[in-house]
Amino acid sequence: MTFRQFAYRNVVRNRRIYAAFFMASVFSVMVFFLYSMLLFHPTIEDKFVQEIAVIGMGVAEVILYIFTLFFLFYSMRAFLQARAKEFGILLHLGMARRQLQKLIFIETMFIGVVSIVTGTILGFAFSKFFFMAVREIVLLPSLPLYFSWQPFALTIGAFLSLFIIISFVAPVFIRSGEVADLIRGEAFEKGGREYSKGYGYFGLLCLGAAYAMAAFSSNTLLIGSVFIIPPLATVGTYYFFTDSLPLLLHMVKGRKRLYWKHYRLLSISEGIVRLRENARMFFIVTIVSTLAFMSVGILASLTSFASQYREMNPLGLVYKSEAENPLESEHIAQIIRELNESNIDYYYRKIPILYQTSSYSDSTVSILRITDVNTMSARFGHLPYKLKEGEALFLPPSASTYNQLNSRIVQTLLVESDVSVEISGAYPYQLFPSHSIGTNAIVLNEADFKKVSETTPISGLEPTAYYAFDVPVWQQTKDIGLTINDDVTESFMLGTTSSLLYSFDNPGMNYSVIRTTFSLLLLIGLLLAAVFFLAAGSFIYFRLYTTLDRDRKQFDVLRRMGLTDREFKKIVNRQLLPQFFFPWGVAFLHSAFAFLFLQVVWDALAEISIVKELVYVLLGFTVMQILYFYLIRWRYLAHIKAPG
């Protein structure tokens, strides 16, 4: 038998241990290849989609590469430590350390090459389905499957270099102590370090502080909290598993009524041992799971923003013109012409907006006529409002301000026109985009509006022409008014918007950009989260199977002592449940408080609720974790009961 054959048979013999490592590697390669296929797709002509694809996929591939490198390093370290006894025997039989390093190099490269080939083949096989999903997301006419050497070269080159690095560095993980220590293997390492009460309380304090800051954060503290909460939670999580949890478990051991009870004694004592052995692994699983939850949760909240965008922008198009704007007629004619050429159904109304100084607030107030408001309201199926002379309504700048304004009654004088009105309550429907009319706006009846308009030429406060376009199929407007929008964007980039005499808002075009961006990011995030989730489960999987021989001997002794099958399953459940669900539960708790903080961010930015989407995310991960637990438990029980 040659040296290469010996290395090959080593891998095959340990295939049970390497299974999760191999599957996670294959999945990482497959996802990386799918990203590469979209990155180099030749038929994406839309510049915006190209930029999103290049930036999004590029960043995702870098994250995936770095994470996979970390994952493989950690995995190889665990594997090699678990095989310490085997390496000790080989050294005892005369194998040189250089030969041992060569053996590990060949084994690692064998697994790496097979993973790369399998992942690349699976990636190409699923490329068509991936392109179909992307095509639906970005509304492209077609996104055909293609064959190019570039995605293959990038994927194979990236992961081959990664496995070469690991193959050279992996032998460093083997303890350089005496051969006798290696032969003693895992038993030599058992026990871990003693916990510290000080660090234990410090970990709980860090987590408590992070949770409190996330739960009670406000708009004024957002920026500072973003930089404080993540490191505080990370440090707290580490000390929680290494010190806080052992401290709590030893408190449980002190309660004899709870601890000294049948198989509970064995479960808790074994749990303490496993915790001390696997504390760092639990920490890593928690952080990786939190990253998976957060990546999907954040992107799902972005999608929530896109889905609620229509509610915040009920009009299809908005053109706002100052009195001195010489391009007003030309722009309106262009918009109407483009709508007609595209066969888009629309209705538009020119709404004059007047300005007066309010004696109550001593600030400028925007004034609309009730006739204009009722006409637009009827387009959305709302009943008209009637106002008597001297009566007025607040026009809320956004939906969230309605309750606050509806409870107010204000007596004020419109200074320039000398018109006195009582503003009682607020208009209940959002007809215009948020803040597009102004932050301080009211609605007057016909008679009062006419009085104000008659004094406008001598007041010095020029009116504004507000063109409101109601477009039922509003997403079709993404190509309307592109030249006008380009001029507005250029003025914004140059910082000359104050001198611009008009503004233009196209929610259909904005929504197209938002929907494409967020949906692509969500797809990228879901694939990355799947890698994180699989990796988190893999850490637990190979840790269980590296200690399988020891566990089988322990349970064999217990069965000979009279342990029943029912008690045996209870003990296994009580040992596996904490390993699977405790790190996941801590990650769940981290994510729940992080999402509370995220809701504050969205309240400050767009006043939307993301609760429903985040509940779906957490429930989805819960179901997957339960299924994964039962799968691993089934295989673990089968191996434990099997003869050694």
Automatic annotation (TrEMBL):
Localization of this protein: Cell membrane
The keyword Transmembrane helix appears for this protein: yes
Membrane-crossing residue ranges in chain numbering: 20-40, 52-74, 103-131, 151-174, 198-216, 222-241, 281-302, 518-542, 580-602, 614-632
InterPro entries listed in its UniProt record: ABC-4_Integral_Memb_Prot (IPR052536), ABC3_permease_C (IPR003838), ABC_permease_BceB-typ (IPR027022)
Keyword Cell membrane carried by entry: yes
Swiss-Prot/TrEMBL keywords: Cell membrane, Membrane, Transmembrane, Transmembrane helix, Transport
Domain ABC3 transporter permease C-terminal, residue spans: 62-174
Membrane topology: Multi-pass membrane protein
Top-level taxon in the UniProt lineage: Bacteria
Pfam family, one: FtsX
Family indicated by similarity: Belongs to the ABC-4 integral membrane protein family.
Protein name in UniProt: FtsX-like permease family protein
Source organism per UniProt: Sporosarcina siberiensis
